[in-house]
């Protein structure tokens, strides 16, 4: 008794499992994201309407353990874009860390200047500079950035929903 051969057509709406035994051919058009199944009943090949929104086609053969996968150009493109975005995010996090270090150092410098040169500056300016220095140090040391991130994500969800 032979093994099974299966064709799995992945669409944005879900997977379609096709028993290869009843199929003459499957044509995957990556450009328009469709797949055509040509059946082979009793010597006549019939063609069904296309399957739309196809993301990939996978052929599985359990006898040989082989799997062939056609991911389609859109999937490959999105994988490449995801890789680029991961690199960009890594850079952005490193840049944020560096900017926080600079902000922290600058705010400490402002606070120290106020402390050491208080006698040469008006009291109201000293108070303002010290408060702003403490505020910037708190931002550099605190978790406010994650609050801003959550606010940004929520605003983005609302913008996408309104589109």
Describe the structure.
It contains 3 helices and 8 strands; from the N terminus they run E-E-E-E-E-E-E-E-H-H-H. With 163 residues, it is α+β, with helices and mostly antiparallel strands. The protein folds into 2 domains: 5-70, no CATH class; 79-162. The strands form 2 sheets. A 4-stranded antiparallel beta sheet has the order 2-1-7-8. Strands 3, 4, 5 and 6 form a 4-stranded antiparallel beta sheet that branches. Strand 7 and strand 8 (66-70) form a beta hairpin.
Give the topology.
Blueprint: E1 5-11, E2 14-19, E3 23-29, E4 34-39, E5 46-47, E6 51-52, E7 54-61, E8 66-70, H1 72-116, H2 123-141, H3 144-162
Antiparallel strand pairs: 1-2, 1-7, 3-4, 4-5, 4-6, 7-8
Q: How many strand segments?
A: 8
Please indicate the percent range of residues in DSSP E strands (runs of 2 or more): 25-35%
Radius of gyration: 30 Å
Quickly give the structural class: alpha+beta
What low-confidence regions span 5 or more consecutive residues with pLDDT below 50?
none
Largest sheet: 4 strands, antiparallel
- Give the rounded overall mean pLDDT: 82
Percentage of residues assigned to helices: 40-55%
Number of helices: 3
The domain tally reads 2
| Distance separating the two termini | 55 Å
């Amino acid at each position: 008794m032979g093994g099974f051969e299966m064709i799995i057509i992945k669409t944005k709406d879900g997977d379609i499992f096709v028993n290869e035994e009843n199929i003459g051919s499957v044509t995957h058009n990556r450009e328009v994201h469709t797949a055509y199944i040509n059946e082979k009943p009793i010597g006549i090949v019939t063609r069904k309407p296309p399957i739309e929104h196809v993301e990939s086609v996978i052929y599985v053969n359990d006898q040989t353990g082989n799997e062939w996968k056609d991911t389609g150009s859109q999937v490959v493109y999105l994988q490449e874009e995801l890789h680029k975005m991961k690199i960009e995010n890594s850079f952005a996090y490193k840049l944020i860390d560096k900017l926080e270090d600079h902000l922290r150092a600058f705010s400490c410098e402002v606070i120290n200047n106020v402390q050491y040169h208080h006698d040469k500056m008006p009291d109201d300016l000293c108070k303002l500079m010290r408060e702003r220095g403490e505020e910037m140090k708190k931002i550099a040391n605190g978790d406010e950035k994650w609050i801003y991130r959550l606010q940004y994500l929520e605003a983005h969800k609302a913008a996408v929903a309104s589109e």
